[in-house]
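Contributing new complexes? Match this layout with manganese (II) ion.
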Amino acid sequence: MKESAAVNRVNRRDLLVGTGALTGGAILASAGFSNAASTAGARAATQLPGYDAGAGEYVLPPLPYAYDALEPSIDAQTMQLHHDIHHAGYVRGLNAALARLAEMRASGDFGLVKHWSRQAAFAGSGHFLHAVFWTNMAPAGDGGGGEPPSELADALTESFGSVEAFRNQFSAAARSVEGSGWGILAYEPVSGRMQVLQAEKHQNLGQWGVVPLLVLDVWEHAYYLNYQNRRGDYVDAFWNIVNWKNVAERLSAASS
Ligand code: MN
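Output block (do not edit by hand):
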């Protein structure tokens, strides 16, 4: 089982090379914005209404659970502010940046292209990472926490040596992000393996061509109300609400 899954990933990797990037298409695809082939189950689990094709605008996807569903790991007020205010701001910022870039194309005046390109990268990466983040969590004991399902555990072991080694590296990476950013588990199509990365802000330190599978927001807005300066405690508590099923489905969709 483990071997056939690995072979499948290797066979498909060439199709995926160069089709996406951490700050762009890959996150779009992993958040369900593309029609890339995947099983119906994986597509349903990873799909988010983060884009309104009719309006041609990005939209804020609803949380897949109540604000207080992740307590005590993450408190309700933090979830409400984080989703309704912070994430919504990135959606607005991305729409605004793309509108300004369209105006530049119409006018031929690209004097501010550097500024709005940076805004598109920042707000867009913020939107896409948050859209993945919400689905990466579930209430403790009700889809959240515990151990990864066996096929995902095998894949993590293949990439990191053991599930525990992965967890240790991910926690260390998340804890040590300089300033605001993310810890990220990503699938890398070139090798068919997974990597742990950091992101500063949303868009820096990324690696082109990988697909985020599990992301942990370590901006202070994600934890400061409850944990204050204790980011490490927040990172530890995250494992109680991690939605392994969602991660497994994202890996399946990214590697097939
Ligand atoms: Mn955030």
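Reviewers usually confirm one structural detail per submission. For this one: The CA atoms of residues 105 and 113 lie 10 Å apart.
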